[in-house]
Automatic annotation (TrEMBL), chain A:
The lineage of its organism: Eukaryota, Fungi, Fungi incertae sedis, Chytridiomycota, Chytridiomycota incertae sedis. It comes from Caulochytrium protostelioides. Keywords: Metal-binding, Mitochondrion, Oxidoreductase, Potassium, Thiamine pyrophosphate, Transit peptide. Pfam families: E1_dh. This is 2-oxoisovalerate dehydrogenase subunit alpha. Its cofactor is thiamine diphosphate. Its EC number is 1.2.4.4. Residues 77-374 form the Dehydrogenase E1 component domain.
UniProtKB/TrEMBL annotation, chain B:
The keyword Cell wall biogenesis/degradation does not apply. The keyword Membrane does not apply. This is 3-methyl-2-oxobutanoate dehydrogenase (2-methylpropanoyl-transferring). It catalyses: N(6)-[(R)-lipoyl]-L-lysyl-[protein] + 3-methyl-2-oxobutanoate + H(+) = N(6)-[(R)-S(8)-2-methylpropanoyldihydrolipoyl]-L-lysyl-[protein] + CO2. Keywords: Oxidoreductase. It comes from Caulochytrium protostelioides.
Length: 417, 374
């Protein structure tokens, strides 16, 4: 745009001052004057970073993160574990044993790849389809099950629908259903981390659908102006329930928005666990070093239905799903990488699947037996302590429970202390 | 894993399932043209009815609106494929993609968009996927839609805007798929707010909302979408906004509720009649939260001397508070007992403790007893 400008056939040279930098206070990136009336519509499309090809071969050896056998196997096992968890919980919902569930199929690499690059000091804000991140950080199968069963061992005290996990121990803020609300919160958390001098970043996961909410735009902008070390990790899986990306946005995905907010940005193949790992690792280093937010867009595909309330055959071809599964499975790709290294084989696969399924089923059985949280927890935690009006309401409920023990049966609940 | 009955919603209890209350409810018209004996329906010329569930009745109203008003458009998250509750099923293919379409996932965006459409004189029917997710649009609704006419001296208005949103409890919705946010909107002059209790009500009230020259929010009790089925007039008709409906007349106690709560109240009344055979109960569906039909409620309470209000939203500043204040003022000398409210507690809407939180049959009966014993 700063190239010498000519107009008309006469080749009149533009007067030099026209090319001078624009000095208005809003021109922060060094705009130049031009007399060429031109609307910009064509922007360069952002490339998609990849380490592994579909056959699990490293495309450029310099990009192989060189993770140890132990770490690679741990990542892959957790991908399988996440699948085992999803299979059983989905089925449990179908049987009416839990009320709701959301699977993570197809997005395993975004979870494990990103989680592997983070530390337990990093603070996570999730959307809901990031169970693998939690798993990889050390959330136990019992913890998953207790939450989905709303039982007395659920840290969330049975208050939220299944899959709304949270863990103080693992620095994973409790999931909230309203979309995109966590994105500006992550920016604030990052700012607080920066001020505390901790070598940690905030990491925020969200879908490409949620990125249409005002909160997303507010978050990127405030993170940029406050120079907050936050990683905005978009799982672009092609759909927001039934809504395809064509109805969601018309720009170059979510990554292109980073430019608008003056932010470091990368797009990555979300089905390539090593690419996700490398991108997040580098983004984290950058965010910490420069105190800057980074936007990461991971392209992937939601293989499962949106949730147990959804039947995706109503809006997408079953063949489309099957094709993705067959042609570009993140698990298969990484397994091929492991096999090339001689770290995995059919026997290991069969053994892992069997033991993981057994472990999930055992945790499941344990959670099912635990009673539900005591009735007092209807009232606790609304505030730090119970104000008088809630004390009165709790007493009223207590009176009702005693008067109507059959109608308001509490047998399934722990007794109050 | 062996199949087992759904155990998540309510733990073992003697209480009937909500679905059973709806299925045996006398509020739902199962006798074809019997519905035309109701004066609000009697002026409908075609006496044809069709047995449909709640979401189909909504769909029918939307189709009727699109059919009869070329300017009308229907939009929201996932609306194109039929909506997550199937209310817009088939409408995209029938009316075209420029009239029935998905919006990006932004409630503030889609409501603001609807205000703009309506301010140009067209009809905008916006869907918020769950009432719990209306809050990103709160600014657009409260500061914009509600004040558009007033602030311009009636030069501009967005009366063609209707916002539909599924609300209320479902048994397993937790904090964010259960709320009844009517009281927030009841505080906003310039808005109208209705809660239809049944398929026939939904069709008539929704069409009235769409055609009303003011912005209207319609909260549809999502638990009824599939559960409630009745014989609904096939014709194009509207029901009045701002008018309550007396579902049952009685002498000794007035009971006011709206939406799905009415089915619980109906059962509570049945049991109360058995328990106190010499007493009779007047059950009122408020239907419109704003403006609300104070006349009907006051007239009733002046007759019965007792008032019970039930809603799922929390007690403090719930809409029951407004009714109680108005009735206390207007009926003081006729009241045999203070106005009573049975509501959700002042906590977020819970999950596993839902059956203890909601104004259940037993809680309502308990309060009725207190009213008689006062
Ligand atoms: C504010 C708000 N609006 C609507 C919803 C309903 N809703 C839940 S998930 C979802 C789609 C989200 O899609 P995306 O962000 O792409 O995530 P994905 O499900 O694909 O992982 C919608 C519309 C919600 N939870 N919150
Ligand atoms: Mg998505």
């Amino acid at each position: 745009m700063a190239a010498p400008q000519r107009r008309g056939g006469g080749g009149v040279r533009v007067r030099p001052w026209l090319r001078h930098a624009v000095l208005f206070p809003g021109a922060t990136c060094g705009s130049f004057y031009t007399s060429d009336l031109r609307f910009v519509k064509e922007y360069p499309t952002l490339p998609t970073y990849r380490v592994l090809d579909l056959e699990g071969q490293v495309i450029n050896p310099a990009e192989d993160p060189g993770l140890s056998q132990e770490r690679c196997v741990a990542i892959y096992r957790n991908m399988l574990c996440l699948n085992a968890l999803d299979v059983i919980m989905y089925e449990a919902q179908r049987q009416g044993r839990i009320s709701f569930y959301m699977t993570n199929y197809g997005e395993e690499a975004t979870h494990m790849g990103s989680a592997e690059a983070l530390t337990l000091d990093d603070v996570i804000f999730g959307q809901y389809r990031e169970a693998g991140v939690l798993l990889h950080r050390g959330f136990t199968l019992d913890e998953f099950m207790n939450q989905c069963y709303s039982n007395a061992r659920d840290e969330g005290k049975g208050r939220q629908m299944p899959i709304h996990y949270g863990s103080k121990r693992l620095n994973f803020h409790t999931i909230s259903s309203p979309l995109a609300t966590q994105i500006p919160q992550a920016a604030g958390a990052a700012y607080a981390l920066k001020r505390s001098g901790k070598a940690a970043v905030a990491v925020c996961y969200f879908g490409e659908g949620a990125a249409s909410e005002g909160d997303f735009h507010a978050a990127l902008n405030i993170a940029a102006t406050t120079e907050s070390p936050v990683l905005f990790f978009c799982r672009n899986n092609g759909y927001a329930i039934s809504t395809p990306v064509r109805d969601q946005y018309r720009g170059d995905g979510i990554a292109s928005r980073g430019h608008g907010y003056g932010m470091h940005t990368i797009r990555v193949d979300g089905n390539d666990v090593l690419a996700v790992y490398r991108a997040v690792q580098a983004a984290r280093a950058l965010a910490l070093r420069d105190a800057q937010p980074v936007l990461i867009e991971a392209l992937t595909y939601r293989v499962g239905h949106h949730s147990t309330s959804d039947d995706s055959s109503a809006y997408r071809d079953k063949k489309e799903v099957a094709d993705w599964q067959r042609q570009d499975s993140p698990n298969v790709r990484f397994r091929k990488y492991l096999e090339r290294k001689g770290w995995w084989d059919d026997a290991a696969e069969a053994h892992a699947k069997k033991t993981l399924r057994a472990q999930v089923l055992q945790a499941f059985a344990r959670a099912e037996k635990v009673k539900k949280p005591a009735l007092q927890h209807l009232f606790t935690d609304v505030y730090d302590t119970l104000p008088p009006h809630l004390q009165a309401q709790q007493a009223e409920l207590q009176r009702l429970l005693e008067k109507y023990p059959n109608e308001l049966n509490t047998a399934d609940f722990e007794t109050s202390v | 894993m062996p199949l087992r009955s759904r155990g998540y919603a309510a733990a073992s209890s003697d209480e009937p399932q909500f679905i059973n209350l709806v299925q045996k409810s006398s509020f739902l018209n199962r006798d074809g043209d019997a519905i035309f004996q109701d004066p609000e329906f009697s002026r409908i010329s075609s006496k044809e009815t069709k047995n449909v569930n709640y979401y189909t009745a909504v769909n029918d109203a939307l189709a009727t609106a699109l059919e009869t008003d070329e300017s009308a458009i229907l939009f929201g998250e996932d609306v194109a494929f039929g909506g997550v509750f199937r209310c817009s099923m088939g409408l995209e293919s029938r009316f075209g993609k420029d009239r029935v379409f998905n919006t990006p996932l932004s409630e503030q965006g889609l409501v603001g968009f609807g205000i703009g459409v309506a301010a140009q004189g067209a009809t905008a029917i916006a869907e918020i996927q769950f009432a719990d997710y209306v809050f990103p649009a709160f600014d657009q609704i409260v500061n914009e839609a509600a004040k558009y006419r007033y602030r311009s001296g009636n030069q501009f208005h967005c009366g063609g805007l209707t916002i539909r949103m599924p609300g209320m409890a479902v048994g397993h919705g937790g904090h964010y798929h259960s709320q009844s946010p009517e009281a927030f909107f009841a505080h906003v002059p310039g808005l109208k707010f209705v809660v239809p209790r049944s398929p026939a009500q939904a069709k008539g009230l929704l069409l009235a909302a769409i055609r009303d020259p003011n912005p209207v929010i319609v909260m549809e009790p999502k638990i009824l979408y599939r559960a409630a089925t009745e014989d609904v007039p096939v014709a194009d008709y509207t029901l009045p906004l701002g008018k309550a409906a007396v579902l049952q007349e009685g002498r000794d106690m007035t009971i006011v509720g709206w939406g799905s709560q009415l089915y619980t109240l109906e059962e509570a009344v049945r049991r109360a009649e058995a328990k106190w055979p010499d007493r009779s109960f007047e059950l009122i569906d408020l239907r419109s939260i704003l403006p609300w039909d104070a006349d009907t409620v006051i007239r009733s309470v002046n007759k019965t001397g007792r008032l019970l209000i039930a809603h799922e939203a929390p007690l403090t500043s719930g809409f029951g508070a407004e009714i109680a204040a108005t009735v206390s003022e207007a009926c003081l000398l006729k009241l045999e007992a203070p106005v009573a409210r049975v509501t959700g507690f002042d906590t977020p809407f819970p999950l596993i403790h839902e059956k203890f939180y909601v104004p259940s049959i037993v809680r309502c009966l308990d309060k009725m007893e207190a009213l008689f014993n006062y």
